[in-house]
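Q: What residues go here?
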């Protein structure tokens, strides 16, 4: 169901909140449980659409799976067959790019599909890579739907990492899950979002396989036997970034139980917030952010492109122009996110210019419209909502239910801390 949300002006933000689990961490744990022959328990598994898509893929396998509250248990099994040969990624780009190489290890003929904006997102890298790995693969003009029939024959390959690190992570997991793996390598040209590759390797380490990214190359020494694993999903820095920005421009927020040593790329929001002039303090795993000065910042978001929407909001309330580098990473998201950030936030008064790979954001002007669209992009809905708190009239966020992709409880939490 598509819903709209009206955001009223706020005097300030104040409160203590718990951020939901990381869909990025959860999907990686689910992927590793699929390649493992041993029992896996996943704790703190969330209920976002993307996480439920990953769970749905697991349940379509012949593994025995139980799901109660936030705990998923996957029984040990060496069977890599699927009950349903038609598998949908819905609108989960990460699940598509993680699981497609893993599913290429199946000897079954599988049909992979998706919904909505995912059908428009480029996947041409699969065509070139799977040919090298002896996988029968076809796509619709380099996009979903796919037909695929393996298994993979792992070889040493070189792959372009400039579009997305998610393809790389999927191939790493597929290699580790292959019984044919020996001493191959994956060399990454033009690597982007390296922290996300490091997160993929960190999750894999929990399953007993310790790989390193050394000089942009992964060295394998297989085949591997993953170990029985219990893994707890971290709370999400991407989701937290919107409340961190809200606190920096409008008050004070304490975020409970978030990992200060996380491998998640979006933990970099903290360095930006400090440069902007906010107060940042820790009490063990509890993070407090409070408004102090509202200055400006210069940040390269090439390795953490999901920070663009909240940072565009933050920069709009600074004292002078801020710059955010890495715009080229935004063109293949749920929307053309660079253009959507500019078009929708500009309605609310944002002053945004895009020059090649850099977004320049100057202090805001008066709003010209109090009616904006999420463009079916969860991060645009959240960014516009935080911006709207600072205005002098209520703002209508159309298609606000897009937040369910990653953060179903976003508006409930926002309402709880808005004064």
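A:
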């Amino acid at each position: 169901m598509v819903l709209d949300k009206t955001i009223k002006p706020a005097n300030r933000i104040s409160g203590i909140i718990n951020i939901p689990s990381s869909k990025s961490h959860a999907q990686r744990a689910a992927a590793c449980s699929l390649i493992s022959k041993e029992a896996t328990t996943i704790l703190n598994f969330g209920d976002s659409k993307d996480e439920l898509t990953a769970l749905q893929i697991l349940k379509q396998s012949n593994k025995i799976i139980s799901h109660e509250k936030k705990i998923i248990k996957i029984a040990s099994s060496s069977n890599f067959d699927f009950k349903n040969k038609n598998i949908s990624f819905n609108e989960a780009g990460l699940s598509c790019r993680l699981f497609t190489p893993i599913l290429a290890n199946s000897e079954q003929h599988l049909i992979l599909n998706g919904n909505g904006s995912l059908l428009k997102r480029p996947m041409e890298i699969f065509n070139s890579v799977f040919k090298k790995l002896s996988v029968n693969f076809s796509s619709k003009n380099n996009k979903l739907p796919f037909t695929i029939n393996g298994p993979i024959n792992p070889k040493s390959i070189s792959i372009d990492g400039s579009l997305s690190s998610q393809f790389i992570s999927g191939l790493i997991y597929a290699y580790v899950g292959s019984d044919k793996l020996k001493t191959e390598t994956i060399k990454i040209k033009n690597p982007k979002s390296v922290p996300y590759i490091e997160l993929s390797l960190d999750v894999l380490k929990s399953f007993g396989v310790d790989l390193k990214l050394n000089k942009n190359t992964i060295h394998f020494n297989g085949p591997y036997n993953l170990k029985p694993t219990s893994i707890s999903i971290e709370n999400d820095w991407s989701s937290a970034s919107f409340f961190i920005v809200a606190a920096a421009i409008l008050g004070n927020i304490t975020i409970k139980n978030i990992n200060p040593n996380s491998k998640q790329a979006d933990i970099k929001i903290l360095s930006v917030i400090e440069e902007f002039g906010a107060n940042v303090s820790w009490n063990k795993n509890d993070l407090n952010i409070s408004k102090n000065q509202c200055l400006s910042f210069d940040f390269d978001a090439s390795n953490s492109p999901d920070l663009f929407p909240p940072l565009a909001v933050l920069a709009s309330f600074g004292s002078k122009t801020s710059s955010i580098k890495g715009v080229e990473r935004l063109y293949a998201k749920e929307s053309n996110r660079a253009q959507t950030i500019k078009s929708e936030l500009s309605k609310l008064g944002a002053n945004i210019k895009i020059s090649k790979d850099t977004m320049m954001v100057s202090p805001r002007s008066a709003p010209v419209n109090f009616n904006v669209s999420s463009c079916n992009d969860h991060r645009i809905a959240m960014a516009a909502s935080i911006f709207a708190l600072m205005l002098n009239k209520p703002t209508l966020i159309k298609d606000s239910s897009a937040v369910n992709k990653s953060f179903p409880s976003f508006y409930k939490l926002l309402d709880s801390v808005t004064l």
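A: Context that may help when evaluating the design: The longest helix spans residues 237-250. The two ends are 28 Å apart (CA to CA).
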